[in-house]
Design goal:
The chain has about 230 residues and is an all-alpha fold. The protein contains eleven helices and no strands.
Length: about 230
């Protein structure tokens, strides 16, 4: 006989393990975006921005989970998210002048935190829908899934931001990935899908344009800064 029959809570445990796997699988892109948003900050402020941005994202995501089935149909949410990610990707190539004043540091801190919040919320749609589907109305499982995904993303993004400081090639790889993700988000936006019904070829084409376009703009910015 199946030993799981004697475990009254085995469906709960199975759902718990499923949520962990989903979080580990879907958190990669989020980590790259948030690492890019936090990279411009001094190392001392970077961790604070990651934690503060993630805390705000938790509140927004918990609220959004109640409306998970409708989230993908909110017009322009993914369009604005994709445009924000394109801005973050291009920002990887901009060399900001050193911030001397405390006011300058705080302005950079709040700007980065805002991008972290927007990126985390807009890119976590797939996480929310997957977790909500697995949880099947169990709010404790939803909270567990969201509370697990945030520290995973913070840890991964903090490591990536530090690696980008040390290895410039990772900046280009990260920017290319963000360009592809932005193109994907824009082409799967509810308004775009309903109005234009783009084919798979169009979707892949826009993703490729996002990837190549970000790299070309980044190369132009780097060349301009050298001159």
């Amino acid at each position: 006989m199946n030993p799981l029959v004697y475990l009254p809570h085995w469906p709960f445990v199975f759902s718990l393990l499923s949520i962990i796997v989903v979080d580990l699988t879907l958190s990669g892109d989020n980590a790259v975006v948030i690492a890019a948003a936090a990279k411009a900050l001094p190392p001392a402020m970077r961790k604070r921005a990651l934690i503060a941005g993630a805390a705000g994202a938790v509140i927004a995501l918990v609220t959004a989970t109640f409306f998970a089935t409708r989230l993908l149909h909110v017009r322009f949410i993914q369009l604005f998210g994709g445009l924000a990610i394109l801005w973050i990707a291009v920002g990887l190539f901009r060399e900001e002048p050193p911030l001397e004043s405390a006011a300058g540091h705080m302005a950079s801190f709040w700007k980065s935190m805002w991008f972290i919040l927007v990126a985390d919320v807009t890119m976590s749609t797939d996480n929310i829908l997957a977790i909500a589907a697995i949880a099947q109305g169990n709010f404790s499982l939803v909270l567990f899934g969201l509370s697990l995904s945030i520290p995973l993303v913070i840890l991964a993004s903090s490591i990536l931001a530090n690696l980008m400081d040390r290895y410039p090639l990772l900046v280009y790889i990260g920017a290319a990935l963000l360009g592809r993700v932005a193109g994907q988000m824009i082409m799967t936006e509810a308004f775009i899908v309903q109005t234009f019904a783009p084919s798979a070829a169009w979707r892949y084409g826009v993703e490729a344009i996002g990837l190549v376009g970000v790299l070309l703009v980044g190369y132009w910015l780097k060349s301009r800064q050298k001159h």
